[in-house]
Design goal:
Number of strands: 16
Bound molecules: adenosine-5'-triphosphate, magnesium ion
CATH superfamily of the largest domain: Bira Bifunctional Protein, Domain 2
Largest sheet: 8 strands, mixed
CATH architecture of the largest domain: 2-Layer Sandwich
Shape: elongated
Radius of gyration: 28 Å
CATH class of the largest domain: Alpha Beta
CATH topology of the largest domain: BirA Bifunctional Protein, domain 2
Number of helices: 15
Amino acid sequence: MNNLKNLRGTVDLLPNQLIKWQNVEKIVLEQLSRASIKEIRTPILEMTELFIRGIGEGTDVVSKEMYTFLDRGERSCTLRPEGTASVVRALIQNGMSSNPLQKLWYMGPMFRYERPQAGRQRQFHQLGVEFVGYESVRSDVEIIALAWDILGKLGIKELNLEINTLGDQDDRLKFQKSFLGWLEKNKNSLDLDSQNRINKNPLRILDSKNIQTKKILANAPRLFNFLSEKSQKRYSELKNQLDSLKIPYLENHNLVRGLDYYNHTAFEITSGALGSQATVCGGGRYDDLIKQMGGANTPAIGFAIGLERLILLAGKELEVPRNTDIYIINQGLIAETLAIDLSRKLRNYDLLVELDSSGSSFSKQFKKANKLKSKSIIVIGDDEAAKKEFIIRLFDKSSDGNKEEVISFENNTKLENWLNNNLLLK
Ligand code: ATP
Ligand code: MG
């Protein structure tokens, strides 16, 4: 039999790698909770139609990258390739799409059938934030600042924020007219994918990753030059507010992020430390999407951060596991039961308590405690068990000797005092 293997583009995250993941997630979740953003969890599996309508048929994601299959009831299902469409569906379905002002986040696996490489997988993870019902420039700035601060809290350096504006529907119609004229003239120089999009969804061509097409597009009319005065003013206001928050940005008028439902503000955060897959965060305003999907006419703005890329960027200090506070060394039948009981009690103090369940000799257990650099140890042998007491010893580098105490199992006050003086209040 062949050895069983994981699918290409998926990875196992092993315990030593997950230390960093958990530390990163903890910092991220703290930031979100401090900003009073509420979590939403939607199914990983959805009807295929949701993504066709929510992301758009002409997009790479929908046309090439989705994991789509028929279930046993012949329904077309898709493993979610992103989070926004599901969040919008859930809001509409639960009668929440017209609720005033909702700040939401989600986190979890996404699936895209892409060519795997560093920072690009077929199953990857995203953290997404959506501000629903928010229309003003202030909310654009707030959400950009939130993404910026999450990355900052993780100590990530070399970050670049790129911004652009896509105007509103009217601006885009005006632009599209002129762009279509240009496309007809330059059709033969474009790659085949782009040629096919001329009739289906011409604005998507701006998203093309084809190098030749990109070169030619440099001479195409620019959406930026078709913005109404109102849209221009909005964009200036965005820049002013970012300036006053001292958040540095670069303007990139080629940043379109799929024009189907995005409007006004679009942004990306990239890092020079990432190599070719440099974008760690992408976001933008999507005022028309919720209505388009059958909900209320509700403006919204959001972003998504790729967690794999975030992990690559976050510092080594986050790879360090939490230190053991107490290592419980025990031997003998009665001692073992007492040790389990004590470990449960001690964990109520939010201490990392490791119970040695190996049954090996005292000296081996001591060695293990040393290797782990446990801050303290507890010893329970037959003698201690008979007297219903245990020895607790602190390895204190700052004082001369190691502080040791004998404590009776019944004497909670003495135990608590010892913990407070030596571990908890340090
Ligand atoms: P890219 O240009 O890298 O393909 P995208 O525009 O397709 O990105 P979005 O759909 O905006 O990406 O997703 C937001 C973020 O999710 C990206 O900036 C990236 O960090 C991450 N991401 C997207 N696709 C993948 C993937 N296949 N593997 C790992 N991370 C990904
Ligand atoms: Mg992509």
